[in-house]
């Protein structure tokens, strides 16, 4: 008889005569090793690594797929049937359990490899390298419904693809192609940046031109509005001026009509007054005519009397003149002339002398006038004028 206390992470099944009489996690029990078999199945999760370096893509390139699988035994009875987890007190149970788990890991890896080969063969090398996450989800989805894993009593907790790596030659070729693509993208980026700069410059210039056009249009619109406003103001002023002129013309017309009415009334009054004055004048003229007739009769008598008197006076004057002429005829001319010259001014005497010289010019041979003589003559005339 032996006593054994198992760990809580170990699922223990006690078998007698091929029947499980007791099972559970972390059992403590007495058993007879002669007629009792004990199966100890680990209940914890285990990590299994895999690396498949002979996977061929659709473009016939070899890649290496590396990953880690996290699995655990969920159906202990199925696992105990498929693997050897028998407990042997005389041997190291841990090594036997590790060997069984290694076998289980290899079986799981074989299933995963089949899935990886199927999926990688559908993609080219570039797609395969970039499909690590997608590959992990695909493998986990495929394993969740795999009948082989179900028979093994195992469930997959997680699948992680650590890398999908091509061969060194392929890697270099891909790196070169990628490098060229990156350089091309760099050139494209430089080209796009330059084009963007040129485009921005064009946009800026277009904006400046559009701004200038908009400003010019605004200025033109402003000028048109100002011109329209000026025209409106001029029209209003013209309308006001026309209204004012019409009002003035109406007022002038009314004033003229009033003046014409007044003038007509005044002319009618004047005409009436003139008619009355003419009639009165006619009456007065008739009376004057009668008075003038009487006066002319009296003037005729007076004129006849005055003519007789004038004739008498004319006869008297004619007699006196005849007597005076007789007296002058008897006078001496030289004496009369000397008397007249005695009353004349020096300048008049000089003028008389020059007249006499002119009358007798044909008798004069030579006549000399000195400057002093002319100066005295001029002074004499000036003195007479003063």
Separation of the first and last Cα atoms: 197 Å
The CATH fourth-level homologous superfamily of the domain at 45-166: Band 7 domain
Q: State the shape.
A: rod-shaped
Strand content: 15-25%
CATH architecture of the domain at 45-166: 2-Layer Sandwich
Individual helix count: 9
What series of H and E elements makes up the topology? Answer: EEEEEEEHHHHHEHHHH
Top CATH class of the domain at 45-166: Alpha Beta
Rounded average pLDDT: 79
Low-confidence stretches: none
Helix/strand class: alpha+beta
Q: Main β-sheet: number of strands, strand sense, barrel status? A: 3 strands, antiparallel
- Write out the strand line-up for the largest beta sheet, numbering strands in chain order: 3-2-5
- C-alpha Rg, in Å? 83 Å
DSSP strand count: 8
CATH topology of the domain at 45-166: Tetrahydropterin Synthase, Chain A
Helix content bin: 55-70%
